[in-house]
Amino acid sequence: MTYRIKVPAKTLPVDEAHLLSGLEHALLRLQDYRGPLLVGLGVFLLAIAVVGGVLWIDRQAAQKAQELEREAMLHVLTAATSPQKAEASLKQAISKYRQIVDEYPRTPTAPLALFQAGNALVQAYDAEGAIEAYQRFITLYGSNPGFAGLVQQRLAYAYLLKGEREQAVKALTSILELPGALNRDQALFELARLEESQSRPEGALAHYQELIRTHPNSPFASEATIRTKLLDVKTILDPAATSNPESQTPPGSSPATDQKKP
Fold first, then answer.
1. What's the structural domain count of the chain?
2. pLDDT, tens digit, for every residue of 119-174?
3. Burial class (CB in 10 A: 0-12, 13-18, 19+), 250
4. I want to staple 159 with a disulfide (CB 3.0 to 4.6 A). Which of 66, 167, 217, 240 is the partner?
5. Is residue 192, in this structure, part of any structural domain at all?
6. Are residues 143 and 164 in the same domain?
7. How many angstroms separate the CA atoms of 235 and 124, rounded?
8. Residue 193 to residue 112: CA distance in whole angstroms
């Protein structure tokens, strides 16, 4: 008996003409969109070039700002170690710091440079210039509450150097209004000391007590506790003097020296 072997039917070959027509159709469609595609590619490459250029310029500016900052710091060190050269060195440092802020205001070095410029101006006994520098810092870079609080404190010291006590109080009080200020405890302590210097024990006690209550671990809390006890003792021993500030002798003077001889 004869057996017939079944051979599976061969698959039909792909229609090459149909395939070629599909490729030609796709190429034709690409040619239709070639203009917009080239424009999009050009815009993309241009954007990359612009971003790269900006980054390169920013990097160069940051390096130059850092170089100026190092030069300024050397002048500050010279002023600290050589009293004969202090005045000239501080002027050079202030000039370098101002150059950083004026020419490279967007660099990370600029805020610190403006702050250091204010400090150098204080060292040079230029309270007016220091106040201007600190105020400019607050205007340009006051978004950082930690740094802004420190600048406000230095601004208060500059006002005191100039003799403007009320402005100093305002600067210190503004620190208490900054949510993230890191020096609120010192601001309270300085406000209390100013109240004491004005013979206003009640205001001083209020600030000391707030400092102790809100910042018990502060290094200023222990001294605030001592000052509070001393003020309480003074109030008990001489209530009339504490209730009448004008009757108290200003710090640093004595009744004997203040009295005029007939």
1. 2
2. 999 999 999 999 999 999 999 998 887 789 999 999 999 999 999 999 999 999 99
3. exposed
4. 167
5. yes
6. yes
7. 41
8. 28
Q: Which string of b and e fits 81-91 if b means at least 16 CB within 10 Å?
A: eeeeebeebbe
Same domain, 95 and 143: yes
CB neighbourhood size of 133 (10 A): 28
Amino acid, single-letter form, for residue 66: Q
DSSP 8-state assignment for residue 34: H
Distance between alpha carbon 68 and the CA centroid of its chain, in Å?
Answer: 19
Closest among 176, 251, 144 to 156, alpha carbons compared: 176
Both 77 and 172 in a single domain? yes
Side-chain half-sphere exposure of 162, counting CA atoms within 13 A: 19
Residues 75 and 176 in one domain: yes
pLDDT in tens, 35-63: 665 666 666 666 666 566 656 577 888 99
Torsion of CA 32, 38, 39, 45, to 10 degrees: 160
Residue 209, domain extent: 187-244
* Domain co-membership, 230 together with 139: no
**Residue pointed to by tokens 């072997």:** 5
Would residue 118 count as lying in a domain?
A: yes
Token pair of 151 as six digits: 């600048």
Of 77, 108, 76, 103, the closest CA to residue 92 belongs to 76
DSSP state string for 54-86: HHHHHHHHHHHHHHHHHHHHHHHHHHHH-GGGH
